[in-house]
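Hey, quick one: can you model this chain's 3D structure?
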Amino acid sequence: MTKNVLTKITQDRGSWWVHKSDNLFSSFYKATSGFLVAIIAKLRGINVAKGCRFYGIPHFRRYPFSQIEIGKNCTFRSDQTSNLIGVNRKCILSTHEENATIVIGENCGFSGVTIGAAKDIRIGNNVLCGANSVITDFDWHTDISKTEPAPVVIHDNVWIGLNCVVLKGVEIGENSIIGANSLVVRDIPPNVIAGGNPCKVLKTINP
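Sure thing. Here's the predicted structure for all 207 residues.
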């Protein structure tokens, strides 16, 4: 074998061991994070169902007499190295008023996603939220905006691309895909691809 081939084999073997060690570290990190998150969630009165996976520690803030519910087998990536597309912050789940509600279904995935509710946010099953997206049902600076919160509903099997913002009063129909960097300010029907600022329907897809 030539010198170049031997060098390539050596490099590939080294990469293989690095890859294996990364996987082992990731498994250990996930287990440790999951244990810590379970304690934090319980202390904050947040219900996390079985099978949820946490990479890094998300930030939970539950306003008194409000509710945060997370369904089975959801994944939260709050560590920059856990999603190679680029997570620039922890996952944040927060309620901001009494009786505010965040309910997340089963088998959902979130990477550096912020979810903030002053009224009601409901996310169905099998929903994927791309890196660094924001979902909120109010305008945050209520002392300036003088507006009321409005519920957000995201139905089953929705895929929201990275860096999207979903604002108050929006309903996204099942099976729809929201393109990266979209600003969603109005309802999106089911079974479509939508994108842009403001987000609009681009194409219908077969359910």
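One thing worth noting: The longest strand covers residues 200-204.
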